[in-house]
Write a structure and sequence with these properties.
By secondary structure, the protein is α/β, with parallel strands linked by helices. It has 16 helices and 35 strands. The chain is 21% helix and 24% strand. The structure holds FE2/S2 (inorganic) cluster. FE2/S2 (inorganic) cluster binds next to loops. The site of FE2/S2 (inorganic) cluster (FES) has 12 residues, from loops.
């Protein structure tokens, strides 16, 4: 049977893992020990995990982060989130068809004692900010308990195969996200005062200032910290469009989880919605995993992410449609195509501009919302509480590292364990790292008369400085001391020695190196490449492109070098005519997809678009309540069940807000839903101290 796994990845080593077996609808299948049920199913191309109780529509994975509750399956008759539950040997897994049956009455048990702990600091979340805060506290010997709902620490860092931007001296710029996670984790583990609970979900902050935690997925504990740090990261925003609940529509983070953490292949041909950094990077990660990217739409006239990320996709052959949006995801049981449309300046579709592309998956990358429910509850209950990283403000992971460091020190000061002031420079650095992409400098690079020189295809002010630290002769510098300024090559300071360190170390893959020494008319051009060596080493020629992906020519490949010092970045050397050699910024990997003739969906579908995916409540139903005067989301919830499903309103509330805005109602007139204390769903028995295994005996 064909397996949908990534057995060779250019950046991620394939780990040695034990093979186990499980049963899906009584069919015996293989899995790797330590992977989630969802990944095990995806590795066998099983994307439909059940059917919805209301309309019988197929359901599958959306967030892969335990947030949306769409991925439920039955294990031993009990519903579990397949994206967080690990597969085990001999497990019998069934799809969840409709609502699960109530379990038979359990044996009579008495509530048991709930263990309670007091700790100076509780950190919820082991991503970049939580780990960084724990390190600062650990350095001072302050006792910290860090809980994280995943089996592996690092948060979103473990999904990032690319080198990070930012400051080389302050936050690991130039290092790959997956490696930053390992560095932070091992530093934190070196401090004995830090205790770590993985696979442990924080469930609620209660009014007695205790936090309920389901330790190791089964044992309920209450923690009473002196200070709480919420470092829970962010959840992806959902988007309303017809077909948005079809299996094959994922959040971009879910896709990266499957591909980069679990090394499974969820798609063969995907389309991306959203041109921010998340969408652009996810597209690059897909190409690295050998998955075709049919295109990307961005509603604004320009992509919001870094230009270097956008340029990389353009060069590799991914069409980017700005001022476009998705009209529908098409398919019966799974996505099989996408229809997009151009939009006007008020984001209204322009009739006649619809285009349909074949694809088997659609990534939604339209932004992130802070996971800040714990912080809000803690402040409501007057707890000493701090928030760090994306839970406080959505920004790059490098800014989250700084935010965690600062919050760790602020907590130490609050506890009286630190008297030194926090360096003002840390706050400045954090603000710089949070900067949005800045001004473009599109002027042509000045021609250089040197025989060997780098061309810097870096045209936008972004916080990034590794190139200025890599040249052993000091010939590359930033134009000012601000790490957001544009880099420049200074031939007057000396001769380039062709060491290739700058091209290998630039996080944006935006430097090429020209060498005219052997043939002044046909210089060699060295380029960074991050794809499987075996796929590109045998290429005799490549299509070369300029910075934005325009084809320049077809040029012979001289060699592909894999220097271990370059940390998995290959250097491809080609030869090209001097007339355009300095314009070459990359190679084309795939032929851009063309639209297909498929009839466009009817526009009536807009009202049938699902807003609450847990309860399958349509936009039309909510819109008619708004039109009839409803201004209270609690009322809408009571009348339609929108927000009453398993995810607890985490995905639909923002979409209901959007419907209000579309109807011209300012949000100041809208009453938000009352949030219940529980942030994650859990069996009622855990509150009586009954372990999971005992609940249905
Ligand atoms: S896909 Fe599992 S909870 Fe969202």
């Amino acid at each position: 049977m064909k397996e949908y796994r990534i057995n060779k990845h250019p950046i991620i080593a394939t780990p040695e893992r034990n093979l186990i077996h499980f049963y899906w609808q009584e069919q015996k299948l293989t899995a790797y020990q330590g992977e989630t049920i969802a990944s095990a199913l995806f590795s066998h191309h099983i994307h439909t995990f059940g059917h919805h109780h209301k309309d019988g529509s197929p359901q599958g994975l959306f967030c892969a982060n335990g947030q949306c509750s769409q991925c439920m399956v039955l294990v031993n008759g009990q519903p579990v989130k397949s994206c967080v539950e690990l597969v085990t040997e001999g497990q019998h897994i069934e799809p969840l068809e409709g609502l699960p049956d109530l379990p038979p009455p359990g044996k009579s048990t008495s509530p048991t004692h709930i263990p309670e702990y007091q700790v100076p600091v509780l950190i919820i979340g082991g991503g970049p900010s939580g780990l960084s805060a724990a390190i600062e506290l650990g350095k001072l010997g302050i006792s910290v308990l860090l809980v994280d709902d995943k089996h592996r620490l690092g948060g979103k860092l473990v999904l990032q195969t690319h080198r990070f931007f930012g400051s080389s001296s302050a936050v690991y710029a130039g290092t790959r996200g997956i490696d930053i996670a390992t560095k932070l984790q091992s530093e934190m583990e070196s401090y004995p005062s830090v205790e770590i609970w993985t696979n442990s979900t924080a469930l609620a902050v209660f009014s007695d200032q205790k936090i309920g935690v389901l330790k190791n997925g089964e044992s309920y504990q209450l923690i009473k910290p002196q200070v709480l740090l919420v470092a829970t990261g962010a959840r992806e925003k959902f988007l309303a469009f017809p077909g948005n609940t079809l299996p094959g529509v994922f959040g971009a983070g879910a896709f990266q989880t499957l591909v980069n953490r679990d090394l499974v292949r969820p798609a063969e041909n995907l389309f991306i919605i959203g041109g921010g950094n998340v969408g652009l990077i996810a597209g690059y990660h897909a190409l690295q995993a050998g998955i075709r990217v049919a295109g990307l739409v961005e509603a604004l006239p320009q992509c919001g992410g870094y230009k270097v990320h956008k340029d990389k996709l353009h060069r590799l052959g991914v069409p980017i449609y700005t001022s476009h949006t998705i009209l529908s995801a098409n398919g019966q049981d799974h996505v099989n195509s996408i229809t997009i449309t151009e939009i006007d300046s008020r984001f209204k579709p322009l009739k006649g501009t619809e285009k349909t592309f074949a694809c088997d998956s659609i990534l939604v990358a339209v932004g992130l919302d802070p996971i800040n429910e714990f912080y809000k509850k803690a402040t409501e209950f007057n707890m000493p509480a701090f928030a760090a990283g994306d839970a406080e403000e959505i920004a790059e992971a490098s800014a989250a590292i700084f935010s965690g460091r600062i919050k760790g020190c602020e907590i130490a000061s609050f506890l009286g364990a630190r008297t030194k002031p926090i360096p003002a420079q840390w706050y400045d650095s954090m603000e710089i790292l949070k900067s949005k992409p800045g001004k473009l400098h599109l002027e042509d690079s000045k021609s250089c008369t040197a025989k060997v020189y780098p061309v810097l295809h870096c045209q936008q002010e972004i916080p990034c400085d590794p190139c200025s630290t890599l040249c052993p002769k000091g010939l590359i510098s930033l134009q000012t001391e601000d790490i957001r300024s544009i880099p420049q090559f200074n031939p007057a300071l000396g001769e380039c020695i062709h060491c290739e360190k700058c091209i290998a170390g630039c996080p944006g893959l935006a430097i090429s190196l020209l060498d005219y020494r052997k043939d002044p008319d046909n210089p060699f051009v060295s380029l960074p490449v991050e794809f499987n060596q075996k796929d590109i080493a045998n290429l005799s020629e490549v299509t070369t492109v300029d910075i934005e992906g325009h084809i320049l020519g077809t040029n012979p490949v001289i060699r592909v070098k894999n220097n271990p010092k370059n940390d998995r970045t290959l250097i491809m050397k080609i030869q090209a005519p001097s007339s355009y050699a300095d314009k070459i910024a990359g190679i084309r990997l795939q032929t851009p997809a063309l639209p297909e003739e498929i009839s466009s969906p009817s526009t009536d579908l807009a009202n049938e678009t699902i807003i609450c995916r847990c309860e399958r409540v349509s936009a039309g139903k909510i819109r008619s309540l708004i039109r009839s005067g409803s201004r209270d989301i609690n009322e809408i919830k009571a009348l339609t069940r929108a927000g009453m499903g398993a995810c607890g309103g985490k995905t639909c509330t923002a979409l209901i807000h959007r419907l209000f805005r579309e109807e011209g109602i300012p949000l100041s007139e809208v009453i938000d839903p009352s949030n219940r204390p529980l942030v994650s769903e859990v069996s009622i028995g855990v509150f009586a101290g009954i372990d999971k295994a005992d609940q249905h005996d």
